[in-house]
Amino acid sequence: MLTATHLSKSFADLAAIRNVSLTLAAGQIMALVGASGSGKSTLLNIIAGLLDADRGEVRLDGGLVIGPKDVLVAGHPQIRVVPQEYQLMPNISIRENINYALRFYERTYRSARVDELLKLCRLEAVQHHKPREASGGEKQRTAIARAVAEPARVLLLDEPFSHLDLPNRLIIRDLLFELVRQQIGDQPPPACLFVTHDATDALSIADQIGIIQQGQLKQIGTPREVYFSPKTTYAARMTGPVNVFRGKHLSVLGLPPTHPSEAFIGLRPEHISLADDGPVAGTVQAVFFQGRQSELDVRVSRYVSVRLLTERDDVQVGDQVRIHLNGNRLMSIG
Ligand SMILES: Nc1ncnc2c1ncn2[C@@H]1O[C@H](COP(=O)(O)OP(=O)(O)OP(=O)(O)O)[C@@H](O)[C@H]1O
């Protein structure tokens, strides 16, 4: 069990991390989602024992994770970090990069373990390539293989999806999913924490999502809890497309006045539908094709437009449509 308690960290007069606490159990994946500059990397480095916190502490299974100022070599042997820039050794092959992490092990075991990791991380075909000959996805997978080569209790990843195309993002997602279920010998599976500014992958893979804003952990919950019950507009927007309007707009949207007029209300696009007998009329302003469905912008009054999802593919800009909003899915977001 990893626990961070009341962590704070300032750089000069900038409070980068403010009183953050979290817990993460073995075999669990947590994603910290936040905008650029919200403090994600700073928090990750403190948890890894690579940066000293000003206040608070990190413990792994009860033992203190000591910051760099009090140890000879920064970091914790059971906490592995996959940095954003991979930091592979450039002059040796992918196989040798992974092998290096196991250099203190006996040769036969080492070779078998490297083979296993190359297979798991789908790197067999490129194992003899140098990092510069590898794609971003392959480098990312090499960095992950290297990090988990020895059994670890915690795997920390900084923006593991950010530079990758969709197929590679899916490979990494599946790989992380597999890794936290893998037990080596009698060791428990690792806990995994990653930081990201894009919640798409986080929603599909994480057991817990934390929303970080200006150094504060504003909300923590399952992906469904945070997605469907965000506490703030920021949490709603960080986790996906959302319509945000005021209580006073409910009537123009065909809904009863259940909220104070200045209250912010959110409604996900999937909870608004085109319906021939819908109570609200509007004009289609934009159509964004997304494959299985399209996202439509529909203007319902001079001041109110909504975004909705439809599987219909016969709708065009300028069409007059009728819509239905699912009032049961309104989210109070402050
Ligand atoms: N070593 C440092 N010295 C001074 N300020 C720093 C240092 N490291 C981070 N900061 C500042 O702390 C804040 C949080 O930075 P951090 O890198 O943790 O954010 P982030 O959420 O990871 O951002 P990004 O998504 O852009 O990587 C930023 O305002 C940043 O400029």
User: How many individual helices?
Assistant: 8
Number of domains: 2
Q: Which structural category do the helix and sheet elements fall into?
A: alpha+beta
Beta percentage is 25-35%
Pfam families: ABC_tran (PF00005), TOBE_2 (PF08402)
Keywords: ATP-binding, Nucleotide-binding, Transport
GO molecular function: ATP binding
Protein name: ABC transporter ATP-binding protein
For this entry, give a set of tags.
334 residues, alpha+beta, Rossmann fold, OB fold (Dihydrolipoamide Acetyltransferase, E2P), 2 domains, six-stranded mixed beta sheet, five-stranded antiparallel beta sheet, 18 strands, 31% strand, globular
Question: How is this structure best described in words?
Answer:
By secondary structure, the protein is of the alpha+beta class. It has 2 domains: about 1-230, Rossmann fold; about 245-330, Nucleic acid-binding proteins (OB fold (Dihydrolipoamide Acetyltransferase, E2P)), CATH 2.40.50.140. About 20% of the residues lie in helices and about 30% in strands. It has 8 helices and 18 strands. It has helices at about 40-45, 95-100, 105-120, 135-150, 165-180, 200-205, 225-230, 235-240, and strands at about 1-10, 15-25, 30-35, 55-60, 65, 80, 155-160, 190-195, 210-215, 215-220, 245, 265, 270-275, 280-290, 295-300, 305-310, 320-325, 330. The strands form 4 sheets. The chain has a 6-stranded mixed β-sheet, sandwiched between helices. Strands 13-17-14-15-16 form a 5-stranded antiparallel β-sheet, with no helix packed on it. Strands 2-1-4-5 form a 4-stranded antiparallel β-sheet, with helices on one face. A hairpin with a 2-residue loop joins strand 9 (about 210-215) and strand 10. The protein is globular. The two termini are about 35 Å apart. The mean pLDDT is about 95. It binds adenosine-5'-triphosphate.
